[in-house]
Sequence to fold (194 residues):
Amino acid sequence: PAAMRELAGAMHEAGAAIMDVGGERPRPGAAAVWEGDELQRVIPAIAYCVGMGAAVSIDTRRVGVMEPALAAGAQVINDVSALRHDPRSLEFAAASGAPVILMHAPGPSGDAAADLHKEAHYSSVLFEVFDWLRERRDAALAAGVAREQIILDPGIGFGKSVAENCALLNGLALFHALGQPLLLGTSRKRLIGA
Fold:
């Protein structure tokens, strides 16, 4: 908790627009986290960040974490499974009225975070990610999420090679055809060094 407060304070002072709080590591090979442990990690962090006056997003795949996180002051749902992991996610996101970030990940939406990196075989990564994000946007719209509340993330680093990530970065303009704001998560990713 002390390290979290120090880091969050430094990020806020440096001008971070949104503090993204998550209690589960979505990197390849990371162990799954029990929902109770995830809640114990994120709720105090959200409360601290909100207390500083920061805007906060909750980075989770579970409605059981989304709901208390929003109640604790988080304003945005950031789901690396694009509301696929928890069967209640689409309905909850629509009812919450909160902005929702839908991220592309090629793998199934199973319990293990590592699954999000599996089954990545692309013939054209740019067009396939575009089509996948369009499908998830449309699923969110059909569930009742307001169009202006949907943000799309091409999932840089999630089940993609360096070349595939570069193709996505070079073709970002294509995603504007989906009519949604884009979020690009590239910080501290191995591909940046490559």
In short: Residues 107 and 116 are 4 Å apart (CA to CA).
